[in-house]
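Lab notes, practical 5.
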Amino acid sequence: MELISLPASQFAARVRIAVYAKGLPVDIVPPPADWRESRAFRDSSPAGRVPVLLDEGGALWESAVLVEYLEERFPDPPLTPVDVLDRATARLLVQCVDLYLTPPLAALADPRTDGAGARRAVEDALNSVMMIDRLLTGPRYALCDELSIADCALAPALFAVGVTGERIGLDLLEPGSTLHAYARMSRQDPHIGRVIDEMEEGLRLLTRTA
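Output from the prediction step:
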């Protein structure tokens, strides 16, 4: 298997956490240099985005789908909680990251966003952070005492929150909150820590070449 990934992408990062946690023999490669315009790349990723997983059966895209695919195909060690309510909450956390937290972060990163749009995006980001904070049960892992699909999505997203907050001069994570503690303590997990290190290095490379 081959994973087309970018180090700083929070979506590619969640798949890499799953790959590392499961110890899978997956080759992690960058997209082609012209991937944003490449018709050939869109044959594998019709949305024109990373990550993309190339398997013997074909190409799969959309990070949440990739994590679920790896979980179903390689169930050991498991990344879905045993308890049915915890499993639903894990998927709910993934949805909160994708539907509510990521869009305002993307708006704040877009130079075309005007002042009013930026203020709305900050408000939406803060509301999303509070929503997610209420769902967490522990400071190191999102749910239970083990790494789950919720952590695969949430830890890289909170790295993006921190980067965004630093760039705009606002603390988007309330000090002392469960989510603030989680953002710090989740890095103690070796797989999360490895991926956050990769994201930091990828961001440094992007900054140098910008």
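Observations recorded by the TA: The chain has eight helices and four strands. The chain has a mean pLDDT of 94.
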